[in-house]
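#struct-help
A.M.: can someone run this one for me? Single chain, 357 residues.
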Amino acid sequence: MAFEVTDAIQRDSDIWRGLKAMPKIELHRHLEGSIRLPTLVEVAQQYDIPLPTYDVDVLRPYVQVTREDAPTHQQFLSKFSILRQFFVAEDVIRRVAREVVEDAAADNVRYMELRFTPIALAKCMGFPLVDVMTWVNETVSETAAQLGIKVNLIVAVNRHESVELAEQMMRLAVDFLGRGITAVDLCGNEAGHPANAFTRLFLEAHQAGLGVTIHAGEWAGPENVIYAIQHIKASRIGHGVRSVEDSVALQLARDYGVYFEVCPTSNLQTGVVASVSQHPLIDLRFLDVKLTLNTDDPTVNNTTLTDEYALAVQGLHFPIEYLQQCILNAIQGAFLTPSEKAALEAEFRTAFGGQVL
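D.P.: on it. C-alpha cells below:
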C-alpha cells in the first residue's frame, strides 16, 4: 500500500492554511509530472488521445500514486506511460508550462526552478529540441512576469538515454543560458544507469556557467551521491536521502556545502522510505545537512508544496522555524547570482518577520 500525503496531514487545519499563506521556494519540480488532471482530459478529447477513461476521478489512479499502488519506483514510473502521450502540439506544451507556473503561484511559491526534459516533450511528435525549449522558456517567462513571481528553468537529461542525445540538450542549454535556463540535471532511474557516462558533459556545462544538480541517493545508494559530488562537482543533489547510509556521503555534502532537494511524499511513494516516522529528513536535519523541501511531481504524487511543508510539521513534527531555515537554504542553493540571492533573502526575511502562524 502506497502512502498518500493526506494520511499524515490535515488540509482543513489552521496549520495547513498558515503554511499555504507562507511564501515558499521550490527547487525540484518536474514539468512533465505536473499536468492538471482536467487538462489531461481536455487535451485528450481535443486531440483524440485514447485514455482508459475520460472521467477525471476514474482517471486518477492511472496517472497518480494511490493507496492501492505498490510503493516502488517501478510503479511510480508507470504513471508516466500515459502522461508522456500528451505533448502532441505546441499549444499543449505551452498550456502545461503556463499552468505549472499558475499552480505554483497559487500555492504562494515566490521563486521556482522548474526542470523539464526537452526530449520527453519533443519525442511524441518529433519536434525539434530547440523549438520545445523556446516554447517552454517563453511561456514560463511570460506567465511568471504576469503573476509577479520568478521562475528559472533546469534542463534535465535521462540516465537511460544516449550520451549523444544528452549532448544535444546540453549544447542547447548553454545557448539558452541567461535566457531562462539556469542549470542542468541528470535524472531518471539511477538503479542500473550510472552517471559516469555523462560526467564530461556536466563538467563542460558547469564550466560554461550552468548550475549542476544530480538525482542521486534516491533509488540507488549513497555511492551515487559521493560520485556526483566528487566527480561531477554537483552543488545540489536531487533527493539524496540515502546519504544517511554512509558517513562519507554525509561528510562530503557538509564539507562542500551541497544542498539536498528532498521530496518527502515522493520518497514514501517510491519505497525509498518505509514510513513517515522513518524518513531520513529527521536524521539529516540533526546532522546539519543543508535541506530544501520540494514536490517532485505534483500530479503523480498528488501533493503541493504546502502539503510537503505540512508533512514536515504534522508528520515529522518539525517546528515552523525550521521550515523557514529550509527556505533560506533554498535561496542560498538556488542557481542565482549573489545579488539576486541577497534580494530574495531580504524579501523572505521581511515576510517571516511579519508571518503569524
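A.M.: thanks! The chain has one domain: 5-353.
D.P.: also worth noting: The longest strand covers residues 150-158.
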